[in-house]
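Duplicate of #3305? Posting structure anyway:
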């Protein structure tokens, strides 16, 4: 019973981001071939209407190329090695942060947080967030598409 309540409170990406990662993976696996939105939906089982919107966002952020017409479709703008997980998440979510104060543009005494002036965890959480962002930037689409993701916790350890 405790597990079920925890499942609803986990830090998760939106379904649109899930779909973006799946679609980008299909494009990486089929590169350099172009795939139509319909073909990506067929290969992945994603719903076409939502997938179309996701592909539009990925195109708007310069991650994929869109060619119209009968022979058209979508392809990656860059090699799968050059597209990071952070890039893909940014395109759909607008970025990630662990807490309100972790935003790069967040002033020291943020109006977004009631305890910012007295907070003892702001700097440690900011450093954790920076490490998390660095990790997401180091994981490429190729890592995800071809199941080569490794998590090196040693590289994320803070030096006290």
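Output from current build:
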């Amino acid at each position: 019973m405790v597990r079920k309540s925890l499942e609803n409170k986990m830090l998760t990406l939106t379904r649109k981001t899930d779909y973006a990662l799946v679609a980008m993976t299909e494009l990486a696996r089929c590169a350099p071939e172009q795939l139509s939105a319909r073909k990506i939906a067929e290969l992945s089982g994603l719903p076409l209407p939502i997938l179309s919107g996701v592909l539009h966002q990925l195109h708007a952020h310069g991650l994929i190329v869109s060619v119209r017409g009968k022979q058209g479709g979508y392809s990656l703008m860059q090699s799968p090695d050059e597209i990071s997980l952070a890039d893909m998440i940014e395109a759909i979510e607008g970025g990630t942060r662990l807490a309100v104060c972790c935003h790069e543009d967040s002033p020291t005494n943020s109006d977004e947080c009631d305890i910012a002036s007295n907070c003892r965890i702001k700097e440690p959480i900011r450093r954790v967030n920076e490490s998390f962002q660095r990790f997401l930037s180091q994981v490429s689409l190729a890592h995800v598409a071809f199941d080569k993701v490794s998590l090196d916790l040693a590289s994320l350890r803070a030096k006290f």
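Confirmed duplicate; merging threads. The two ends are 38 Å apart (CA to CA). The CA atoms of residues 25 and 145 lie 5 Å apart.
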